[in-house]
Amino acid sequence: MPLDKVRQMQQQAWQDPQGFWSQAAQTISWMKPVERVLDDSQAPFYRWFPGATLNTCYNAVDRHVEAGFGEQTAIQYVSPVTGSERAVSYGELQQQVATFAGALKGLGIGKGDRVVIYMPMIPETAVAMLACARLGAIHSVVFGGFAPPELASRIDDAQPKLVISASCGIEPSGVIPYKPLLDAALEQSQHQVQGTVIFARPQCQAELKAGRDHDWQALVANAEPAGCVEVAADDPLYILYTSGTTGRPKGVVRDNGGHAVALAWSMKAIYNIDAGDVFWAASDVGWVVGHSYIVYGPLLARATTLLYEGKPVGTPDAGAFWRIIDKFKVKSFFTAPTAIRAIKRVDADASLLQGVDIGSLQALFLAGERCDPDTLNWAAEMLKVPVVDHWWQTETGWSICANPMGIAPLPIKAGSPALAVPGYQVEVLDEEGTPVAPNQSGAISIKLPLPPGTLMTLWNNDDRYRDGYLARYPGYYLTGDAGYMDEEGYLYVMGRVDDIINVAGHRLSTGRFEEVLSHHNAVAEAAVIGINDSLKGQLPLGLVVLKQGMDRDLETIKSELVALVRAEVGAVGAFKLVGVVEKLPKTRSGKILRGTMRKIANGEAVNTPATIEDPQALLVISQALAQMGLNTPEQPVLDLS
Ligand code: COA
Ligand code: AMP
């Protein structure tokens, strides 16, 4: 029975983590071998494989070349937005990474130095990441859709010596020059970098500032290849910033050893990928999915990773995914539910699948946001393969709950990412921290220690890690998601308990939107909530109270607010909905009732919270939303008694 097999493995991993993970560690080439698996002496801070040493780049690239697989394609780049495709073999990748690492070394980059990478979806982005790993430098990739202030705040936190970027990204809307964005960020940041390296793309020229900016090609032309530097298993490999509940992003720190072991293990256990298989995660390297499953996971497993610079629809059409699966014989494919909804919206009967042979595909994996059963069922019906919803976070780096296709495919229950992956002990807790009964909702939490590959801490901020994740329920990691577990152990993740929203699989902080809105000189107060959207899952909606006596045209103010968020947060925020209201509903202690407003906006029944200061404020919101054409056809049921 598949369920029994997975449960047995869960037990093994929980009861004997040393035995379980030391076996998994054998797939990795260590410089100093693993002797101890877990150091829990500093709990709740844990260290995996203390004392062992390795190099992640060596494991992802060099060892495969040494083993005779230099000719195998490591990265298959497919770029409909530039009309190009390119295969990079493991041998070529090794040569490119070693040379670029040599160039970085020439710029003074070494072990422990931070390097920010702000790049589009091109193979050179993976080369830059791997080159940092090769030198033991810590990379921090920033998603290209973020605006300069977001990049600047990450530069200030990570304090990099260098930023690596490209002349442009390419979106369906056109060429996005990156260099002016980078220049603006460097001007805004307090921290001064020593230099930048810019990869010139033919679509756009970047202006280089003498003495600070270096041209990638010119640097590598004169560089000597650099070797792999030995690092400790618990030395950081990267920092990846993610949205917290405040405007300040959190720098998730990933180690080298635990990360390599967990990702290599997950490639087979979760995705059923063996060496030589073709794996495709249609995400972006700026997100955790891109780190784990465009770059490191597939390369550690010696698979071929497909790196896609395009969209699910419009580049050129909703059949793009299927034709690429056919052409490159993709075995496992990973995308976000939003992408499937986008395809379904324009090609509801999947007519573009006709004449396309997707016989290589064994499973479709979805993550990044809650997967509604309709989307899952549609994909399963059209593609005729198992559709696997799996749940994880930037913090964990790989899936917490999944249907482990390489261990034992479990029966699929739409709406559930299935069982806790071996290594994760998932429990649903009530307010007091007591596990609830099956099918009862609560805070989804993970018993410590988290398995290898999960966050070590937050960059330079152990306190924020402890306070934000570990303090609420001692002995547990708080995921920030709420949900329930059924009798069989299938988890149902229903949404966040905090002010994080998920727009097209992109995690964003409403606190950050509010911070930006309140900087506008007409705004007295602002609240941002996530409202349901049939394509992107959620969309941000801003509700603002204007300063007294403000007699400017409301439409102009609203357009300014939309433009301001785009300039400060970035296009990826998809912030387009603003309502002006007379007042915001608050508790008597002044806390804005965002949850109640969210319910109203989503057309749900609302009882007046007992703590509300002025019940009429709910009516104000309801009317404003109705005027914006929201929460129809079902009007909220407001109980103002
Ligand atoms: N650099 C610069 N701008 C970017 C960008 C990047 N790397 N990525 C996105 N943007 C911009 C887009 O051009 C768009 O700008 P616009 O407002 O000028 O149109 C905006 O950010 C929003 O982008 P996106 O979220 O991609 O939405 P979209 O409306 O352009 O496309 C979908 C809709 C459904 C096709 C798209 O959201 C999608 O592919 N979703 C899949 C989700 C996914 O892969 N998530 C990753 C997590 S697993
Ligand atoms: P991120 O850190 O960007 O990967 O976002 C993580 C958050 O996205 C989680 O905490 C969830 O709220 C949500 N999420 C990711 N995957 C799923 C899923 N399969 N089901 C439900 N929510 C998900």
TrEMBL record:
Domain Acetyl-coenzyme A synthetase N-terminal: residue ranges: 7-60
One family name in Pfam for this protein: AMP-binding_C
GO molecular function, one term: propionate-CoA ligase activity
Domain of life: Bacteria
AMP-binding enzyme C-terminal domain mapped to chain residues: 514-591
Residue ranges occupied by any AMP-dependent synthetase/ligase domain in the UniProt entry: 68-447
Annotated GO CC locations: intracellular organelle lumen
Family to which the UniProt record says this protein belongs: Belongs to the ATP-dependent AMP-binding enzyme family.
Protein name: Propionyl-CoA synthetase
Classification lineage: Bacteria, Pseudomonadati, Pseudomonadota, Gammaproteobacteria, Alteromonadales
